[in-house]
Amino acid sequence: MDLESNCHQFFVINLYPPCPQPELAMGLPPHSDHGLLIILMQNDLQGLQVHHNGRWVSINPLPDSFIVNIGDHMEYKSVLHRAVVNRKATRLSILTSHGPPPDKVVAPAPELLHRENRPPAYRGITYKEYIELQQTNSLDGKSCLTRVLI
Ligand SMILES: O=C(O)CCC(=O)C(=O)O
Ligand SMILES: [Fe+2]
Question: Which atom of ligand 1 is least distant from the CA of 14?
Fold first, then answer.
């Protein structure tokens, strides 16, 4: 397989400086990640929270470990998460995100729809357009997947 033309990798660094009023600020608003697989490392500070059973749960950083997230394009439940800030120290997270090429239209696989005899639940959209949609401020705390539901 020609990996260069069949996938797209992002490298992201998030820097969250100390915040005097963390209860009034948000490091990164709620979202689920685009792409297939996201591998994240962070310094030894809490900040990442996942939405679980209707509430935000803080993820304790484990030394020498990565957090692996499933992205929206895996068609498996991607998790809604956010990053909060703190009063005392700078938090850093570094991640790579792996997805299809930007111009690739991602849509439910016709073979699976046919086998299940079901209409598609999502409209087809290029990976690039999906990322642009995900970066808008109009998601209102919801996963971008809700924007491509039919
Ligand atoms: O800083 C974090 O732990 C989360 C970063 C994140 O969710 C992202 O960049 O998509
Ligand atoms: Fe994320």
Answer: 1
